[in-house]
Amino acid sequence: MATYAIGDVQGCYDPLQRLIHRIGFDPAVDRLWFVGDLVNRGPDSLNVLRYIKNLQDRAIVVLGNHDLFLLAVAEGIATVRPEDTLQAILSASDRDELIAWLRQQPLFYREDPFVLVHAGLLPQWSIDEAEQLAQEVETALRSPSYRTILQALYPSKHLQWSPHLVGSTRLATIMKVFTRLRACSLDGRMESSFSGHPERVPAGYFPWFKIAQRPHHDTTIICGHWAALGLHCEEHLLAIDSGCVWGRQLTAIRLEDRTVFQVSCSNLELLW
């Protein structure tokens, strides 16, 4: 039995299947953990969603920013952009089933000694607090009023976390942290536009995982989201977005021994 954490797939179905073959995944005994961003920008988001959904309890998924964007587009809250590749999902006969399944997925998954999130955690959040905050959002996303918090997330540039936030703004800000965080200040103020290499983080901000004295510094956090960071492993960090959708690699890490598996995406046929 093995557990494999897999980086941002973003609609890259063929590389995902090659990676599944490479690791020798056996759905009878093995599990796959996905760091989110299952969809968008790559050429076959529809089959990625169908495949992972059909894995049932052999797959653990946390939501990423592109997955939330799909939910918002499906509800008419956000508008598809030229670089988005979501139309096949939106036009599919099983669209409603796929969207409903995606909406049931968590933002945060904890199985000691690991935590699985898409982007990261604010430096002032403990693991217990992060789990409780994620559960607030997950409950709301699974409720009939889920559209309200999606509406509060778009646009999101102005959202900054405070424990005093309430209502849909609070929930949208929690979603922003879990799915979009890359850099922040020492007191947890998020930098909302930066996506480049960590050495070029704007003055006054730091990669979230480089801030000392974090209360979650001794928990191994598995995340993706930061393609410019690439595969980056530390004692308590496994950052595994290796830029498949940008023609680089799709990465899996076997958690039992931290063995890294990768397939090349250099021949990926993008649709934009």
Order of helices and strands: EHEHEHHHEEHHHEEEEEEEE
Biggest pleated-sheet summary: 5 strands, mixed
Through-space gap between termini: 39 Å
Q: How much helix, percentage-wise, in residues?
A: 25-40%
CATH homologous superfamily - what is it?
Metallo-dependent phosphatases
Radius of gyration, CA atoms, in whole angstroms: 17 Å
Morphology:
globular
* CATH-assigned fold name: Purple Acid Phosphatase, chain A, domain 2
CATH class: Alpha Beta
What is the count of β-strands? 13
Average pLDDT figure: 95
What do you see in this structure?
The protein is an alpha/beta fold and 272 residues long. It has a single domain (3-264), classed as Purple Acid Phosphatase, chain A, domain 2 (4-Layer Sandwich), CATH 3.60.21. It has eight helices and 13 strands. It has a five-stranded mixed sheet, with helices on one face. A five-stranded mixed sheet has the order 4-5-9-11-10, with no helix packed on it. A hairpin with a 4-residue loop joins strand 12 (249-254) and strand 13 (259-264). It is globular and about 45 Å long. The model has no long low-confidence stretch (mean pLDDT 95).
